[in-house]
Amino acid sequence: MRCHHCGWVNREEAAFxxxxxxxxxxxxxPQTSFIGRQAELAALEAAMQQSCAGQGQLMLLSGxxxxxxxxxxxxxxxxxxxxxxxxxxxxxxxxxxxxxxxPWLQLLRGWLEEADSALSGEIPGSDAGVIxxxxxxxxxxxxxxIEPPPIEDPAQARFRLLDTLTRFWQQAARHQPLVLILDxxxxxxxxxxxxxxxxxxxIAASPLLLLGSFRDIELSRQHPLSDTLGALSRLPxxxxxxxxxxxxxxxxxxxxxxxxxxxxxxxxxxxxxHSEGNPLFMRxxxxxxxxxxxxxxxxxxxxxxxxxxxxxxxxxRLSRDCNRLLGMAAVIGRRFELELLAGLALPDAExxxxxxxxxxxxxxxxxxxxxxxxxxxxLVRETLYEELSTTRRMxxxxxxxxxxxxxxxxxxxxRLPELAHHFAEAAPAGTAETAIDYAQRAGARADTLLAYxxxxxxxHLALQLQELYLPQDSExxxxxxxxxxxxxxxxxxxxxxxxxxFGQAAELARHAGPAAEWAVAMLARAAIGFERxxxxxxxxxxxxxxxxxxxxxxxxxSTERLRAELLAALCRANIYCDRPQAAHAxxxxxxxxxxxxxxxxxxxxxxSAIVPARSWPEHLDxxxxxxxxxxxxxxxxxxxxxxVGYMTGWYIGDLMEYGDIDSARAVLELHQRVANAWRQxxxxxxxxxxxxxxxxxxxxxxxxxxxxxxxxIVGRRFSPDHAEGVFGMQMFTLRREQGRLGELQPVLSHxxxxxxxxxxxxxxxxxxxxxxxxMEEARIELKYLMTDELKAVARDAMWSTSITYLAEVCARLDxxxxxxxxxxxxxxxxxxxxxxxxxxxCYGSADRFLGMLAVTLKQWDTAERHFQAALAMDERTGxxxxxxxxxxxxxxxxxxxxQTEPARALEQAALLAARGLGMEVLARRCDVxxxxxxxxxxxxxxxxxREVQVLKLLAAGRSNRQVAERLxxxxxxxxxxxxxxLAKTNTANRTEAAAYAIRHGxxxx
Length: 1005
What we know:
By secondary structure, this protein is mainly alpha-helical. Helix content is 65%, strand content 5%. It is built from 49 helices and 10 strands. Strand 9 and strand 10 form a beta hairpin. It is elongated.
């Protein structure tokens, strides 16, 4: 029967509620209220209505142990079922030996057990294959499932799993609205929390409600759930419901259901003061008072000092044999199997007789699965466990581990976490080597199941045990360090830790010396791992180069496969050290060796090693040739995923730089086909980024902005920081062409000045200042960045973009002193396009910027050749925005050389394109140039037509802002004109300038 106070479902013959202690038989008038939780239930029911309407919700119940989180969830589950929703439960396991993804496995099994064969058969074959990696029994139910193709990249492999499970629950909810309850999240493994984060982000448009509960007192800043809660709190459909204790009145109502006649005021006051309204504590106190009896006056003479004392008093009423048995069960965990317990205690028949005593006392309760039991509360188990002596604990843990080995010898992999836990706890008693072996195997299995955080835990446990008990086994220690470093890298977020651990592995291998055969191979693995992690986070390659060269020197020349891998890594490391000659030499050696080996994957890795070297224009032809061969190789091998995973993004950027737009588009189509088939966010983001670049190149700004925003959404699912950086770069380019840079200036200025590590944005800030007519600010940035041969500008994939921005600023400021240096650095890009990053933005022909620098240097013929080359390149590649810029810059040059008619024709073509494409800034510049080219009178002292217009308005008493509004320019531009007017007319202020205008007949008297 269901308790009318706490909602707990009890056995029909029960006299008292197993959970809250209420006297079930004495509830003559059933109460329909759920004491103390009406507001929370109302919020949950409102969320239920929203989710049924297709607006997925995430609700989180938090509070102290025993506060009623599970009971509230049970009551809500009943109400949800009455509304036609399907409810599935997943409870997190308290002990360290919990299987990976345990709460989600329970949810999956619960759904599949009740789903008919037709419904479960709707799971797509490829998705079923992915899910079966977690749930092997699915293969028996769906024999036609498709085994998923392997994925090398661990982050992408985990994404496929999380994405597949998310789609599964979304599809399941379409058949019947779903409530998924995850109880006790504070005990969840990190992999389960990652899945919760992922699913929660995707349920907004699904009839699905996620309900989680957790103890907030268990959480520290280092607890994995703390990070998860931080991520979930940013979701608009997430709400947290903190549960507090019952009020004084609710406590009295709670106690009113107890058997017998009680003077409620005195009892309720005493219990409320001691329990602070915590239902668990009140339940235990109530049981204690019922069993001890109450004095005639109803006053409680003594309330136990703490809940543990109350539990201890309850345990003291049990027989010695029962307490001894429960102590053995406590070693197994909160939940335990009768079959396993029998291996530690007595034959089954005698054991059940003793266990019945604990069941009758409500210390233990039976679970729905036959032969499985659990302690009524975690505190009961903790009390029993802490009462055991250290030696008895170790002995029982060892017996539990050995019994598990016997019982599960045919399915040992599924019990590896438990085995590692039990033998680790018994390690001082001689099980250290066994514990290390199981912990290492548990880590490897967690890796296989993509539960990288749990792999880190088990490898770390194995390493601790090895260092404590078997420090002389350096080979195993090094192997564990490498496994730990790789797992930490796969887990993400702590790349620096991975680098440190790889360094420790290298030091251990180095200390063993070349005489140890294992040491050389492990030094090589440590060096390769160190380089890969450093490359992924953009770390300078100095340390990686040193490690790789050391490993190569120690390696036996006959170990050719490993040598080729080391050389490919050395090539990449030298790229990140800006060492072109060393990188090129390593690349040549790696490819020669790989060709001799004849292994396609080894050759692909060698060829693709040089592709990221986009900051070296002199190697473009070599990079294109290597990428072309690598692409042909993967096509013949039937593994396009090799190229899409590691190379196509860089290749698209190189093809754009070369001006081969058709080939770039073809590679992009291949990339998107594979990325969309795999549904990998990183690869999809690469494709969307490159697509936005090509769309911008065509001048379709609105479409490009939409693609950039899609890229941001997809990319945030994989790497938020990287996605936001790419989006910022693309939006900066679009807003600049649209004349909307003013929207970004305050944010970008603050960002650069308050984040020293973002120096890469300073060239962009300089060009922003110049576009906004903030010339002094632009001059300050240019001077800073040009110091010591552009020392402050990183020589990375953004190098060409940075010097392009600086070239524009230099030309706008007419700084001939800097133009020579910039021209020298930009000249190797002549005849090519400027591409930002790997494939973020294309700015059209580099010759346009070279022409602008040549104009600044008064090298007219050179400038004209560059502008003609730019016109040819941008017209051939369909770079319509950049072609408009080419025409405008060329027209300015011709105007300076008094070639008015061709200049006017170019200006008109540029203006027409600018207006058609929505390039507001360029259109305004063309208007100014048209005035310069038009027939006009000669004004005194070299004043321009625009300056005379400004002067007339100044003489009429207008302010700078009023002048700006009249002439449709910015106040900054007006201020520049005013400074020029005062200088040209040799006047000191506006009054003198007005008098000058009257004196020279520029205004009416």
